Amino acid sequence: MAKATTMRPRLLHGLLCLFLLVILLTFTSSSFASAGSGSGKVVTSLPGYDGRLPFYLETGYVEVDEDNGAELFYYFVESESGSADDVPFLLWLTGGDRCSVFSGLAYEIGPIRFVLEPYNGTLPRLRYNQNSWSQVSHILFIDSPVGAGFSFSRQPKGYDVGDISATLQLHEFLIKWFSDHPKYLASPFYIGGDSYAGKIAPFLAQIVSEGLGCYYLLLYERQLSIEEGRRPLINLKGYLVGNAATGESVDFNSRVPYAHGFGIISDQLYETILGHCQGEDYSNPSNALCAQALITFNNLISEVQQAQILLDTCVYASPLPNDANIRMKGSDGRRILKEEIEVGKLDHPPARPKFGCVTYGYYLSYYWANDKRTRDALGIKEGTKDEWVRCHDKDLPYSTDLGSVIKYHRNLTTRGYRALAYSGDHDLLVPHLGTQAWVRSLNFSVVDEWRAWHLGGQAAGFTISYANNMTFATIKGGGHTAPEYEPERCYAMFSRWILNRSL
Fold this sequence. Notes:
Layout (H helix, E strand, L loop, with lengths): L1 H27 L11 E4 L13 E9 L4 E8 L11 E5 L8 H7 L3 E3 L11 E3 L9 E5 L9 E2 L7 E2 H18 L8 E6 L2 H26 L13 E7 L7 H4 L1 H7 L5 H10 L11 H14 L58 H10 L2 H7 L19 E2 L6 H9 L3 E7 L7 H10 L4 E10 L2 E9 L3 E6 L6 H4 L1 H12 L5
Parallel strand pairs: 4-7, 4-10, 9-12, 10-11, 11-13, 13-16
Antiparallel strand pairs: 1-2, 2-3, 3-7, 3-8, 5-6, 14-15, 15-16
Helix pairs in contact: 1-3, 1-4, 3-4, 4-11, 7-8
């Protein structure tokens, strides 16, 4: 019996290897004629930025679907702390409706920011972000899935992807990118994402952790042309998710107690929902009385800026979860205002928010990214993207076929990978109450009780740590997503965690 017990993990691992190989062959069988990913371009200056960039920036493409000519665009920022083997390496993904990872680069954790000033027809200006996570980590930003940002497909079929196929394409991207950049292979590797990318990050981490050994065995057997010294054995150490979707009903259902706690809905409505919606998925209720109460609920929460409930409602174009478990059925979760439409050089100009709105920076990005000088500087391939948009709102096909990812959180942390889940405490789109609930559902013992963590002598949020290497933290004043609203606090949190220091 003891021998059988010992053999079971190996058998399960072998079956998982076989399963992953079948999937990888299905999606990527024709795309590994060579190990290389193509050429990257070192960018030393950007239009709108005064002087040379004070950081190393590389941009480029990696082909992930040879049959359809699909290529993912990336921005790579080398850490300002140098390129030694012990410098962490972070892959960063952005959620939303096929939103560009430029959101992460320019609004959240990257080294540039827009100078917020009224648009006057000239190229928007850029400045350096003092709270860039690149100060302590390399960051690889990828426009994923195909169609997001500057990523493209030469054949329409290449845009027809979903959670699983897009994640497998990211896996292929990493294999090819690290084959071309082997100097970073020794770095402790982490996968990060926010909002809807909170589903993709742990799934990708699972594939990387389980699939690479099996995958390279397959490459060896097929005698594909990857040199022995260039096989990318990624040094995966963990992952982090912010304001993260899970695919579980708790993501949406937690909005009800959160809205009640902040005085957005009344005691009476809260009690009505609890009474009539027991056991219901609030995003798709089958009970008529529950559905009616949730219509009232949805109308009330539309009166506040759900990304950060203390701010004024504005035209909203931030990355949002594109998932039935996140949104109320019949509502896209956004406050749509009748704002002036800017008629300019763009074929599809964005709605113009009032100056001072947090979304004004998103508006500026359209005029910056679609300027020919910007495209030339970034090395954008001619004819691949008629017009850059921050997010695609259902104009390209996408399958939400992953389901719940909580099992991947459990698998990874059980096996010793580090994990950080953090939430802005003023986010109504994916409230911290829901994140706390699924973290607790992993059923690991507490090793560091709930406490405040500090910055500058003041509480910057609250945190709790578990025996499975999982840390949960809130960001005081943070919204959806937290680094955009509280960059200094989020940088402090990330830099301490990624360097294995206590929050």
